[in-house]
Amino acid sequence: MILTSKIESFVMHCGEMGSRWGFNRTVGQMYGLLIIHQEPLTAVDISEALNISRGNVSMGIKELQSWRLVQVQHKPKDRKEYYSPAGSIWEMATRVFEERRKREVDPTLSLLRDNLLDDPANDKEVYAQEKMHEIHDLLETVTHWAGELQSMSPDKLNTLMKLGAGVTKVINLKDKLINKS
């Protein structure tokens, strides 16, 4: 399979983004390829398109499956497995966020809770616990808000995001009016 320059550019960029999302560059490239390819791809297709080994493809598919980002399909009278994205772009974003929360935010919240249960031994620890409490509260708020967003339909999420700039303007206007008083 030969990639056009536009498709190759997108796939390579997905590799770079994958490392920011929490998986390696090759896995990001594989997912980018699957996202923009109309038909499901076999491991051989992926291997040839990205010029990587079948073993690397196999490990990458397992990683994408652990993130619940790909689905396996079978075709009648064909023993090969075909891979495609599992769901819409919105569902992908939700899954990536959810997995990042599980891998990064939840352990941080757990550590913060444990540290906040202990009584501070001195003034430095009192100050440190105050900051840890602020971080804990911020992460709890963001996690709760994100959970609410994840339960919304893509249409409602899209509407909410479009309202975002308008809400910011209203809040800024309110602040200006209050400051004039």
From TrEMBL:
Q: Which Pfam families match?
A: MarR_2 (PF12802)
Family under the similarity heading: Belongs to the GbsR family.
Q: What are the alphabetically sorted keywords of the record?
A: DNA-binding, Transcription, Transcription regulation
Q: Does the keyword DNA-binding apply?
A: yes
Gene3D superfamilies from the xrefs?
Winged helix-like DNA-binding domain superfamily/Winged helix DNA-binding domain
Enumerate the GO terms in the molecular function aspect: DNA binding; DNA-binding transcription factor activity
- Every copy of the HTH marR-type domain together lies at 29-80
Name the record gives this protein: HTH-type transcriptional regulator
Mind giving the lineage of the organism this protein is from?
Bacteria, Pseudomonadati, Pseudomonadota, Gammaproteobacteria, Alteromonadales
From the UniProt record, list the coiled-coil ranges.
none
Which InterPro entries does the annotation name? ArsR-like_HTH, HTH-GbsR_regulator, HTH_MarR-typ, MJ1563, WH-like_DNA-bd_sf, WH_DNA-bd_sf
